[in-house]
């Protein structure tokens, strides 16, 4: 079964909804940050997006013809799965529209052979995947800012009893990275 990864840019106060200018994809990235991003890209062959995030990406990344980061090239060639009940023509190569129940669609994707599936942005979709218990890993790029408002990574009232730290790093920009895996209930019960 494939690993479903939620990767998000997040503020210190837990907001993933960007209401202020705390994240700029066109900024000059830290080389170590970019290396980590490309390592994750090599481990994934599917990008899962909600309609709004897909439209935002489609309206930005294909236009970056001189993108030295390689992100535009990766997003152009990776298989993109778009959860939408209204989009019929994705207008971006390697894009597939997923209609119907998004949880069932993602379960089916996870059952197919392949590498990691990465979901980024897409707050409504992210919340549905978290609530359904489909997320295998969280990769968070925490920006040194407090927004004070905006939707958060986890839906209100949702509890994950334990997360295991897989990796942690810091970058010269002040951004930190941490990857976590939810600990299944049976594993928690077996731990003395």
Provide structural commentary.
This protein has helices spanning 31-42, 51-58, 71-77, 102-111, 123-131, 185-190, and strands at 4-11, 44-50, 79-83, 95-98, 116-120, 137-143, 163-170, 176-182. The radius of gyration is 17 Å and the shape is globular. The two termini are 28 Å apart. The protein has six helices and eight strands. It is α/β, with parallel strands linked by helices and 192 residues long.
Summarize this, please?
By secondary structure, the protein is α/β, with parallel strands linked by helices. It contains 6 helices and 8 strands.
Pick out the low-confidence regions. Answer: none
Q: Secondary-structure element sequence?
A: EHEHHEEHEHEEEH
Going by helix content, strand content and strand pairing, the class is alpha/beta
Q: Tally the helices: what do you get?
A: 6
- Integer-rounded radius of gyration: 17 Å
Report the sheet-strand fraction: 25-35%
| Counted beta strands | 8
**Quaternary organisation:** single chain
Largest sheet: 8 strands, mixed
Q: What spatial order of strands do you see in the largest sheet?
A: 4-3-2-5-1-6-8-7
Give the overall pLDDT as a whole number.
Answer: 92
Helix content: 25-40%
The geometry reads as globular
Terminal-residue CA separation: 28 Å
Task: Pick out its properties.
192 residues, 6 helices, alpha/beta, 8 strands, eight-stranded mixed sheet
């Amino acid at each position: 079964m494939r690993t479903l990864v939620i990767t998000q840019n997040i503020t210190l106060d837990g907001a993933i909804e960007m209401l202020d200018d705390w994240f700029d994809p066109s900024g000059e990235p830290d080389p170590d940050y970019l290396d980590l991003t490309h390592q994750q890209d090599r481990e994934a062959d599917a990008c899962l997006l909600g309609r709004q995030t897909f439209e935002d990406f489609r309206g930005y990344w294909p236009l970056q013809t001189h993108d030295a980061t390689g992100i535009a090239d990766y997003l152009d060639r990776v298989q993109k799965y778009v959860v939408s009940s209204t989009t019929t023509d994705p207008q971006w190569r390697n894009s597939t529209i997923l209609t119907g129940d998004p949880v069932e669609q993602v379960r089916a994707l996870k059952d197919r052979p392949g590498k990691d599936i990465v979901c980024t942005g897409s707050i409504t979709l992210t919340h549905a995947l978290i609530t359904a218990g489909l997320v295998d890993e969280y990769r968070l790029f925490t920006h040194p800012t407090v927004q004070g408002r905006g939707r958060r990574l986890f839906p209100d009232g949702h509890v994950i009893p334990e997360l295991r730290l897989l990796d942690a790093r810091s970058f010269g920009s002040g951004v930190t990275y941490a990857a976590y895996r939810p600990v299944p209930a049976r594993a928690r019960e077996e731990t003395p």
